[in-house]
Amino acid sequence: MESLLLIGGLGLQEILLIALIILLFFGGKKIPELMKGLGKGVKSFKDGLNEVEKDNKPSGQSETSLDKETEEK
């Protein structure tokens, strides 16, 4: 039970205080919009990472065939 309350060294009181400050700072209507924007940003970042990984792999060749070609040279 104690491990659930101590997330990253923060206790339940600290988490509640931070949540209250965020609620007061942004207001109840703005928070869902912020979370939606954050979700879109994370999705875009993941899509970009997947695209970079696809661009780095040569088409039609697996990693094992690339290793064999390197060893032959």
Strand content: under 5%
Oligomer: single chain
The overall pLDDT average reads: 77
- N- to C-terminal distance: 59 Å
Quick one: how many beta strands?
0
| Unreliably modeled segments | none
The biggest sheet, with number of strands, parallel, antiparallel or mixed sense and barrel status, is:
none
Given helix and strand content, the structural type is mainly alpha
Helix content: over 70%
Protein name: Sec-independent protein translocase protein TatA
Subcellular location: Cell membrane
GO biological process, one term: protein transport by the Tat complex
GO molecular function, one term: protein transmembrane transporter activity
Please explain how this structure is put together.
This protein is mainly alpha-helical. It has a domain at about 30-55. Helices cover about 75% and strands about 0% of the residues. The chain has 4 helices and no strands. It has helices spanning about 1-5, 10-25, 30-55, 65-70. The mean pLDDT is about 75.
